[in-house]
Amino acid sequence: PGLHLFAIAFALEVSVGKTNTMMALNNSNVLLPCTFTTCIGFQDLVFTWYFNSTELVGDSIYHGKIKNKATEPTLVTRNPRVDFVGSTTKKDNNISILLNNVEFSDAGKYTCHVKNPKEKNAQHNATIFLTVVHKMVETDNTVTLIIVGVVGGLIGLLILFMLIKRVVLFIIKKTQDGKKECLVSSSGNDNTENGLAGSKAEQKAPPKA
């Protein structure tokens, strides 16, 4: 088990980002991203971009080699419409390419393949699915705007209700406080006039005859 984990830790990995589907406008240029990672470094690494195939180097649209981390890739073969736009001497081992003047026939599967002799010729690849369109379709946000408007309106009403509730409660509290003051004051008067005064009179000793 220990050896198995060790092997996983030093495995070569290739990534094309969070999503592997892309859309490009006809006659535009599109960036096909790809990076690779390896914990033990690389020596004489070979990378190849394939279009709708992963079998032969002859079917590749870009084929390059990298001597080591201190050098940038050297070109072996490439399609005339493909340019290398990555860099392997910086932080990320970026081997992205740019496909120029995209045509409808360029739609399909693009595979970024890497082979590292330093890892006993370990190989790994990642794939991008490219769709080419005549024009970019604008997203209809009407429904979203309606939902946002309704939700916003409901939140606004809720806030208004809360404010009205606070004001009403405040008024009721003030009114009740006023009534309490009246009750206390009238109760004091009653005690003075009727209760306490009478009590004190009754408690006095009768005059001596």
From TrEMBL:
Q: Which residues form the Ig-like domain?
A: 1-129
Q: Where is this region: Disordered?
A: 181-209
Q: Which Pfam families match?
A: V-set
Q: Which GO terms describe its biological process?
A: cardiac muscle cell action potential involved in contraction; regulation of ventricular cardiac muscle cell membrane repolarization
Q: Which InterPro entries match?
A: Ig-like_dom, Ig-like_dom_sf, Ig-like_fold, Ig_sub, Ig_V-set, Myelin_P0-rel
Sequence ranges of Polar residues compositional bias: 184-194
Superkingdom of this entry's organism?
Eukaryota
Example GO CC term: the record gives:
voltage-gated sodium channel complex
Instruction: Give the coiled coil ranges.
Output: none
Care to name a GO molecular-function term for this sequence? transmembrane transporter binding
**Keywords for the protein's UniProt record, in alphabetical order:** Disulfide bond, Glycoprotein, Immunoglobulin domain, Membrane, Signal, Transmembrane, Transmembrane helix
Topology of this chain in the membrane: Single-pass type I membrane protein
What is its subcellular localisation? Membrane
Keyword hit for Glycoprotein: yes
Subcellular location, principal? membrane
The portions of this protein that span the membrane are 143-164
Q: What is this protein called?
A: SCN4B protein
